[in-house]
Amino acid sequence: MQSAAEQVPARPLTINVAAVVKPRHIQLGEKARLDLTISGDAFIKHIEAPKFNFLPAFLAVPLHTETTPRLESSKIAVSMAWVYELIPQAVGDFSLSDVRFAYQGSDYFANPGSIRVSSADTYIDVSTRSTHQVKVSVNISEPYLNAPLTYTFRYLYTAVLPTQESPTPRLPTFPDFLVEELPTQPPYTQQIRGKTFWVEEHVRRLYPQKTGQIVIKPATLLLPIPRGRKTLTTGPLKLNVQPLPEIGKPPHFSGAVGEYQISAQVDRTSVETGSALTLSLQISGRGNIQTVTAPKLPAVTGVVVNGPNLAEDSTPTNRTYAYALIPARTGTLRIPAIAYVYFDPSQAVYATTQTTPIPVSVRPNPNDAAGTETDTSVWRIWVTLLVILIVVLAVAGFLWYRTRSQMFRGAAVNPGTATRPLDNSETTKQGRQQTETEPTTAASLAHDALMQLARSNTTDEATAFANTLAQILYEYLADTLALTQRNIDTVREVCVQSGIAESIREELLDLLTKCDYHRFAPVPLSIDERRTLIGRSEGVISNIEMFLITDN
Helix crossing, 376-408 with 527-551: angle to 10°? Predict the structure, then answer.
């Protein structure tokens, strides 16, 4: 027979299960936590791990398990907990499936509820029920090299967060671009899917500096919320930068990209000979103003051009260049149309803009020693006499040069012979005698300057020597061929226009090129090298004189 205590039926074991997800709202790229627990009012043993499957919405990564003993009705009971990390794989609202717990042949179920996953660029604040979002865009996805494109960062929100701190945008650094920061505009409203959003924009104008694919890194917004900070992140932007086309590229294209206009004006329309007037050229428009260079002026006969100089009134949207023009002849000076070539990325073509020709009246300078004849017949007589005088002076100058050249070469190039170089007193004496008996010409002045250069102490420095030699040659060409601008390209044009033989022209250009080399990249020059350059300069001046005499 059983006792009364043994006849009392055993109390059934009570099992409790739970599944909890925190937080209920996350962004793509963030993680949620899943806590699963099973407990009873008595000791639980042989507990299996719970079963669930949240794919494809979430990956579940186990973190750890916990066993918690406790005293229940004077008996030891145990609670078991499993902790998982939920990594979202998609954006949306998800109702999670039941979690199954198995114990002693029985199944127990707990439902974790739902969870919302927003994209990395969106946050929904529970307290204000407001939506916050960031977006970036460019107006051109396949820009040309150095062509402008607009990058816009936008922060959209339906209500202001209840915090004292303001959201902080962080834009990328744009390492492959020249960057212009445009002024920030006031916020405006926009209707999106039936909701009213406030929109704040931050705009940059970008000029790509390399071709091929460029990836602009994501921008972020630090969003202050009562529980700390939330970071909203945009996606990256991919650009395919195209090189400027070679087909149709003009020879005078200097690299300007955009849409430009050029205008010209002078500070006065009437000027005296020998006096300077200022020509201002302004280039304005839309594009990378840093690629704009000074326009090249066409050669104007009888006008000396100095400049250009960048004017102080230049702005980020225009460049102004000033040129000083000094006319040497009376009459009407016609400043020709000045063209400027640029690449227009909107049309994908090379375009040319140009100025309107400007007439300028040039009157005689009252300070000139000689007056101007108004009678046509008298003027023609003077011109005829002047031509005869120039021919006579050129012949005399050539004969004088040949004698002086032979003397110089005997004293300087062959120092080992018995001929003794002239000392300063003898040179001065001979120069005085020649001044009294020989006319002064451009060639004679050049030869005297070359003789002085051969004796000058400045020849110890290659830079000073090259500067002086180039100055002598340019002054001779200005007096002989009416050279207006002192550069190699203008010398080539003037020589071609004057009909100078190609062999003489190439020898002259080679000498000026060597002078530029030693002026801007100075290297040592030996005495023999200097003598050779001086001898070649004398030779090219003599050849030009002979050519001009023969041609006349």
Answer: 150
303: three-class secondary structure by DSSP: strand
d(CA 15, CA 108): 8
Spatial distance between the Cα atoms of 264 and 136, rounded to a whole number of angstroms? 41
Four-point Cα dihedral 497, 498, 501, 502, nearest 10: -30
Nearest-angstrom CA–CA distance, 150 and 206: 6
Q: Which residues in 95-127 are b (16+ Cβ under 10 Å) and which e? A: ebeebebebeeeeeebebeebbbbbbbbbebee
At 152, is the secondary structure helix, strand, or coil? strand
Rounded Cα distance, 131 and 124, in Å: 5
Q: What is the pLDDT of residues 247-270, one digit of tens each?
A: 989 988 888 998 999 999 999 999
CA distance 71 to 79: 11
**Could you tell me if 290 and 313 are in contact, meaning their C-beta atoms sit under 8 angstroms apart?**
no
Q: Are strands 258-266 and 237-241 parallel, antiparallel or unpaired?
A: unpaired
Cα–Cα distance list, 260 to 180, 292, 310, 354, 397 (Å): 18, 10, 17, 10, 52
- Closest by Cα among 338, 341, 301, 344 to 323: 338
Q: Cis omega before residue 308 (within 30°)?
A: yes
In 308-458, which residue ranges form alpha helices assigned H by DSSP?
A: 376-408, 424-437, 442-455
Residues of 209-219 as b/e, b for ≥16 C-beta within 10 angstroms? eeeeebebebb
User: Residues 143-164: pLDDT tens digits?
Assistant: 999 999 999 999 999 999 888 8
Chain Cα centroid distance, residue 381: 59
Full-model pTM: 0.53
Query: Where do we find the tokens 């209707």?
Result: 191
**Residue where the block lists tokens 């006096």:** 275
